[in-house]
Specification:
It contains 15 helices and seven strands. It has 360 residues and is α/β, with parallel strands linked by helices. The protein folds into three domains: 5-80, Winged helix-like DNA-binding domain superfamily/Winged helix DNA-binding domain (Arc Repressor Mutant, subunit A, Orthogonal Bundle); 150-196; 201-359, Glucose-6-phosphate isomerase like protein, domain 1 (Rossmann fold), CATH 3.40.50.10490. It has a five-stranded parallel beta sheet, sandwiched between helices. A two-stranded antiparallel sheet has the order 1-2. α2 (19-30) crosses α3, α9 (178-198) runs parallel beside α14 and α11 packs parallel to α14. The chain is elongated and about 75 Å long.
């Protein structure tokens, strides 16, 4: 957020604003940029002001209404590299070996926690699945029996073996320091919990019905999310025939699209920065009648309007690395729901697959 010119401008004008508009700025910067993604009414309600008061802020800033402000926020976020921002602003070790925040002890009115730090309160405006947020049952996801206490205890034990001097040395050697690694682990854990609880269980079952009944299933993704697509197909191919990755070459994609029909399903993973190649394939497949299961992020892929089943991960995990773990976790739940629909035929297929694997 420190690199974002819009966030910087909001902080700069804050002292000059009337109280109602200050309240809107506090909400925006305390949860930037996600607070800007909802409706104007939702933003005004979170700030405790009327929609016209919130709207005056964006007029004052020179935007052509709230929609113009939202577009600027989205464009700015798409142009930023999380990894570059992390490298250029990674915490430095202070004299005690802990991370140095670089912040003074002043009374920062907004965004004082800094990027990557989230409040414990749920975000009522964070995008979720299209049917609203429900809590998945304990059987749906890989939840530790003790709620993660064992992992935290083992982490504390491991951390106890590292001296303060080693922590400082690690940070001074060019890394973010062990403190940053532990924070990243906590952020990843919290983000994964949020992802698993934000996607409604009925949405998994709707997607599973398509994956189980389709004539063929084709999956693709962007430069990183293609790994999730590959994982989905590797596992799905054990459950049913005609589950394939979309070819990488243009001729291969053309041959794939040529044979698609309305009985086929495309699973697309599309995250910032959204892939034009993924969009071109999906548009061509939809023109042939194929149905789309789309896994995307809080920003909303341009392909969202094309999807028969839309799974929106609520937000990215904090930290510098795109949260592939979230995409894999959602894919695993899709596979679990699909396997339940395909049993017992899937059991026989998997048994035959194991036997052939040993033979070959």
């Amino acid at each position: 957020m420190e690199n974002d010119p819009i966030a910087s401008r909001l902080g700069a004008v804050y002292p000059e604003l009337p109280p109602g508009e200050r309240a809107v700025v506090r909400v925006l910067l305390d949860d930037y940029p996600f607070a800007a993604l909802g409706s104007l009414r939702a933003l005004a309600e979170r700030a405790g002001v009327s929609p016209p008061t919130a709207s005056r802020l964006f007029d004052r800033l020179g935007y052509d209404g709230f929609a113009d402000f939202q577009a600027a926020v989205r464009d700015g976020a798409r142009d930023r590299s999380r990894l570059l921002e992390f490298i250029t602003h990674r915490p430095q070790a202070n004299e005690s070996g802990g991370p140095h925040t670089g912040r003074s002890g002043g009374d920062a009115p907004v965004g004082a926690a800094g990027p990557g730090v989230r409040s414990g309160a749920a975000d009522p405006d964070a995008p979720a699945g299209e049917e609203g947020a429900v809590t998945l049952s304990g059987e749906a996801g890989p939840v530790a029996p003790d709620g993660g206490a064992s992992a935290r205890a083992s982490g504390a034990t491991a951390g106890a073996r590292v001296s303060a001097g080693e922590v400082g040395a690690s940070a001074s050697d060019g890394g973010a320091g062990l403190a940053s690694l532990w924070q990243a682990a906590e952020d990843l854990r919290a983000g994964l919990d949020g992802t698993l609880t934000a996607v409604p269980e009925p949405l998994y079952h709707r997607a599973a019905a398509l994956l189980a009944e389709a004539g063929s299933v084709w999956a693709l993704g962007g430069p990183l999310s293609e790994l999730a697509a590959d994982y989905l197909i590797r596992q799905l191919a054990g459950l049913r025939p005609r589950a394939e990755r979309v070819p990488g070459s243009a001729p291969g994609r053309a041959r794939t699209v040529l044979d698609l029909t309305a009985s086929d399903v495309v699973v697309a993973y599309d995250f910032r920065r959204y892939s034009p190649r993924t969009a071109r394939f999906v548009h061509a497949a939809r023109a042939r009648g194929a149905r789309l299961v789309l896994v995307t992020d809080a920003w909303g892929s341009p392909l969202a309007a094309e999807a028969e089943v839309l799974i929106r991960l609520p937000r990215e995990a904090a930290g510098p690395i795109a949260p592939l773990a979230h995409e894999i976790a959602v894919s695993e739940l899709l596979l679990v729901a699909t396997a339940a629909r395909l049993a017992p035929s899937a059991a026989g297929r998997l048994a035959a697959l194991d036997e052939l694997t040993q033979t070959l």
